[in-house]
UniProtKB/TrEMBL annotation:
Protein family per UniProt: Belongs to the mitochondrial carrier (TC 2.A.29) family.
Solcar repeat copies, ranges: 5-96, 105-194, 204-290
Record's protein name: Congested-like trachea protein
Single GO MF descriptor: O-acyl-L-carnitine transmembrane transporter activity
Top-level taxon of the source organism: Eukaryota
Gene Ontology biological process terms in this record: carnitine transmembrane transport; mitochondrial transport
Keyword Transmembrane appears in the UniProt entry: yes
Pfam families: Mito_carr
Chain segments annotated as transmembrane: none
Bilayer topology: Multi-pass membrane protein
C-alpha cells in the first residue's frame, strides 16, 4: 500500500475493494454460515449437510444458484462503508503510530494499526452480520420464509427487541474483527514487502497484490474463525436461547461438540478467503492509483 496516500484515499479505495470482495466471495460465505448453524441430528437422523460440497449441492438443488447469494443485499449495502472505514482506520492508525513521515513501521506496529481498524467497523458490521446470517439460514425455495429481505428482517428484529436486537452479537464481532484485522493488514504488507523488489515490473506488482491479498484473507480467518462461529450461533438463535450471550454459546458448544466445532465451516471460508481478498486488494490498489491520477492532492 502507498505510504503517501491519505486516509481519505484509503476510505474511498477500501469501499471499492469491499464491493469486489462481496461479489466474489458471498456464495462460500452462505455455505459457511449454513454449516456453522445447522442443527445437531437427533438419534436416528442424518446430518443436514455432510460437508462443504454437500451443502453447496443441496443449496443449488433446492434453491438454485440464487440461493448461494441469499442475504447478499445486507453486506453489499454495508460493505462499502465497512471496508471504507476499515481501510480508513488502518491508514489513520499508521499515521498515529508514525513519529516521522518516512518512518517504516514494524510488523507489530502494522498489526496494531490493523487492529485499530477493527474497532471502527463494528457499528456497521454487527447489524449487517446479524441480518445477513438470518437471511442465509432460511432453507428451501418453497418453504415458508420468515424474512422477505434485508429491510423486512431489520424491521422484524426492531419490533421484537428494539435496537438491541439488531446489534445482537456486537461483542463477538469485536472479538473477531480486532485481532483478525490486525493479522489481515500485517500479513498483506509483509508479503508484499517480501515479493516486490524496488525495480519490480507492474505485472509482478499485480501478481504480488493477488498473492498477498489472498494470504491476508487466509490469515484473517485463521485468527477470526472461532469468534465467528460463536457470533453466527448467537446471532441466529431465537431470543432467550443464550441469556448470558457469547459465554453461554461457548459453554454449550464445548459441552456438545468440543473444540473442533470452533472451526466449523472452515473449508468454505478458506476456499472463499483467497480469491475474495485478492479481489479486495486488487480493487483497492486500482482505486488508489485512479485517485492518485484524478485527485493527487486529495
Amino acid at each position: 500500500m502507498s505510504e503517501k496516500s491519505s486516509p481519505v484515499k484509503y476510505f474511498l479505495s477500501g469501499g471499492f475493494g469491499g464491493v469486489c470482495t462481496v461479489l466474489s466471495g458471498h456464495p462460500m460465505d452462505t455455505i459457511k454460515v449454513r454449516l456453522q448453524t445447522m442443527p445437531l441430528p437427533k438419534p436416528g437422523e442424518t446430518v443436514l449437510y455432510k460437508g462443504t460440497w454437500d451443502c453447496f449441492k443441496k443449496t443449488v438443488q433446492l434453491e438454485g444458484f440464487r440461493g448461494l447469494y441469499k442475504g447478499m443485499s445486507a453486506p453489499l449495502t454495508g460493505v462499502a462503508p465497512i471496508f471504507a472505514i476499515s481501510f480508513f482506520g488502518f491508514g489513520l492508525g499508521k499515521k498515529l503510530i508514525k513519529s516521522e513521515e518516512d518512518q517504516v513501521l514494524t510488523k507489530s506496529e502494522l498489526f496494531a494499526a490493523g487492529a485499530f481498524s477493527g474497532v471502527f467497523t463494528t457499528s456497521i458490521m454487527a447489524p449487517g452480520e446479524r441480518i445477513k446470517c438470518l437471511l442465509q439460514i432460511q432453507q428451501g425455495a418453497n418453504a415458508p420464509q420468515k424474512y422477505k429481505g434485508m429491510v423486512d428482517c431489520a424491521r422484524q428484529l426492531y419490533a421484537e427487541g428494539g435496537i438491541r436486537s439488531i446489534y445482537k452479537g456486537s461483542v463477538a464481532t469485536i472479538l473477531r474483527d480486532v485481532p483478525a484485522s490486525g493479522m489481515y493488514f500485517m500479513t498483506y504488507e509483509w508479503i508484499k514487502e517480501v515479493l516486490v523488489p524496488e525495480d519490480a515490473s507492474n505485472k509482478l506488482k499485480m501478481v504480488a497484490t493477488i498473492v498477498a491479498g489472498g494470504c491476508a484473507g487466509i490469515a484473517n480467518w485463521l485468527v477470526g474463525m472461532p469468534a465467528d462461529v460463536l457470533k453466527s450461533r448467537l446471532q441466529t438463535a431465537p431470543e432467550g436461547t443464550y441469556p448470558n450471550g457469547m459465554r453461554d454459546v461457548f459453554k454449550q458448544l464445548m459441552e456438545r461438540e468440543g473444540p473442533m466445532a470452533l472451526y466449523k465451516g472452515v473449508t468454505p471460508v478458506m476456499i472463499r478467503a483467497f480469491p475474495a481478498n485478492a479481489a479486495c486488494f486488487v480493487g483497492f490498489e486500482f482505486a488508489v492509483k485512479f485517485l492518485d491520477w484524478v485527485a493527487p492532492n486529495l
